[in-house]
Amino acid sequence: MRLTTPAAAVAVALAATIALASCSPAESGPTDGAEPPAGAQVDPEATIDIGSMYEPQNLDNTSGGGQGVTEALTGNVYEGLFRLADTGEVEPLLAASHEMSADGLIYTFTLQEGVSFHSGAPLTADDVVYSIEKVIAEDSQSARRSQLAVIDAVTALDEGTVQVTLSEPSISFIYNLSYVWIVNGAFEGDRNAVADGTGPYTFGQWTRGSALSLDRNPDYWGEQAANAGVVYHYFSDATALNNALLTGAVDVATSQQSPDGLAQFEMTDDFVINDGDSTTKLLLAFDDTEAPFDDVRVRQAVSYAIDDEKLLESVWGDYGTLIGSMVPPTDPWYEDLTDLDPYDPERSRELLEEAGLEGGFTFSLDTPNYDPHPTAATFIQSQLAEVGITVEINSITADEWYTKVYQNRDFDATMQEHVNDRDLVWYGDPDFYWGYDNADVQEWVQQSELVASEAEQTELLKLVARTTAEEAASEWLFLYPQIVVASNALSGYPLNGLNSQFFAYDIEKSV
pTM value? Predict the structure, then answer.
């Protein structure tokens, strides 16, 4: 269902024509993670070894590449018309400028000149048309496909100009475009295994289960990368990653998975521990379409039975944040809703009795097999047992989770981390994997794109956050901290890692 509003209702906010000046990555890059040591000399030919827990599933972000492909390729190999900077600001990138019609329905984009793909093919408007249509195609698995479904037509006006016509105004349209990689429409290779972008790095080699390398692009249209290349090294557990840092096998870890390993880095001056802002929510998602979780009282009972504060402390110690909804503090519509999800086992038992489940019930919990999911799953199992609920933990790989849970919707409940900002809107889509279906929420989400101001959008999405929290659409356990641990020889790395991005092109290594 899509609600429409006459164009006149939003004309006030959309009457102005907008133009953005061009920007290259060097002009507004990620926040520096550290300053080079005093007296140290930067080696521009250094290779940066990056440790990560998130290996790509494939190299195509419209085919379920997952968190790992975003981390390695977004901004590094592939670029968009716009970029979500590490500060959270949306900046122009391949779009030198853009204009919007008075009714908010037609956007015209002028492309940067002199941009080529790594294969040597020049960037043209046809590539932009292909890329956008690829994201909104019926078989696309892009996280922003539903938000970009407002696109009615994409047209190449000439080689350097693209026109996008919307079926209705969308206040978040430019923001959502920052998720769209511009790819070579004529590329004939396997996009799942190789990459051909416009970014500051060319794709090197991917050894599955081990590492993925990127090389400095000597023909990059913007400022050259500050290093000769990067290698993402993949680890299946935090201990192995920490050991690699300690032994110098990697220079930086994109995110620390457990505070237990931090003490060994605090005991030496060889490393810098950075605590940035995260948008990664760990949540217990129910299949809201099937019994017993189609009953709001059962979902609430599960939520009341879990002591989120104790869980967060057991996993992260003094790090991390309780959120009470899908909204992190960095989203414009954030409110502290933790009071709607108190730890109250007695109330949990009362709700189970009201739902006709006073004897409890059993459900299967599909749990990714990497930290901190196993620890959290065991904690949840123990807590729910106290109110008579039996949890059968089913540990699965990331690949298995994607197929079983996300694609096939074959689950009772699952644990998963959602990394994107502004992703509350997924509760307005009853076809999303958790199947939450509330007509009011759907209307508020849809209307939030049609309103005349960001203030109105914020108020509508606050309603969505409060309603989904009151109905325990999911159980939001906590917000991850964003802890980046790096050698003190490194500087220029991103601190916040919004949406799992990790821009590598400004990283410098001193010798």
Answer: 0.76
